[in-house]
UniProtKB/TrEMBL annotation:
Domain VOC: 10-127, 169-284
InterPro entries referenced in this protein's UniProt entry, alphabetically: Glyas_Bleomycin-R_OHBP_Dase, Glyas_Fos-R_dOase_dom, VOC_core
CDD domains, alphabetized: VOC_BsCatE_like_C
PROSITE patterns in UniProt: VOC
A Pfam family of this chain: Glyoxalase
Protein name per its UniProtKB record: VOC family protein
Organism: Mesobacillus zeae
PANTHER family: CATECHOL-2,3-DIOXYGENASE
Amino acid sequence: MNFHQKPNMFVESIFLQVQDLNRSVSFYTNILGFKVLKTSNDGVSLSADGKTEMIILQYNEGVREREARKTGLYHFALLLPERRHLGAFLAHMIKAGFPLQGASDHLVSEAIYIADPDGNGIEVYADRPADAWVWEEGEVEMSSLPLNAEELLSEGIGYEWSGMPEGTTIGHIHLHVSDLKEAEKFYCRTLGYEVVNRYGSQALFLSTGGYHHHIGLNTWNGAGAPAPSGESAGMKLFTIMLSDMDEREKVLERIRQSGASFTLDSQRILVHDPSGTQLALSVK
């Protein structure tokens, strides 16, 4: 089952403000293996399949080091099509000598964690089959167990890493928020996500269509954490795809009723969540 196509709501792209455009392009192309889709004087857009814009990098004069202990991006997650791709990616990272920040078995998936040159967290992962996920009373079982690296590496034998494979998507995005209850109200009541896992009192996982999560929320940077300034390197925007224009109108009406400020940009709805993170709601 494809959880990253309509009628599900999924993250399609992410916009990052960077301190050094050449450095970031080198990382995303040479280390992660993205393809350059478009370039401008101050920006580059990247794709896995050579057609779909997934990551937009932009440099603005005066951009400072990514501010700590703020709301916004915790990590964005790149979902690879098959487990063998993840095994080959791990072998590639070892060969490149690139430092890993972590590696986990989440029961529903296996994941490798790294950071880009500006300190943005990135998860590269592969899902286990959906029929192997364990659900109880509407919540999916997830954990953070040690990854069996040897077994994963053996899965990638015979497949040489040559860049992000076609079919790679942004599987989910995980955000620092200032107030978990307010964030839940916005993403669930206003946008239409469903809670699929409560991780104690400090984190929440949301999805549509029975996925283990399209959105993660946490207060690990502290309840009441402020939003970053406009000069901070990091995520400036992410795009959620809605199923169709009818769904767009329903979501727009709920945004109006919630009192959240928004603007309309062509077919996109631009809105900030209660923690100050900007997102675009779009329809193909």
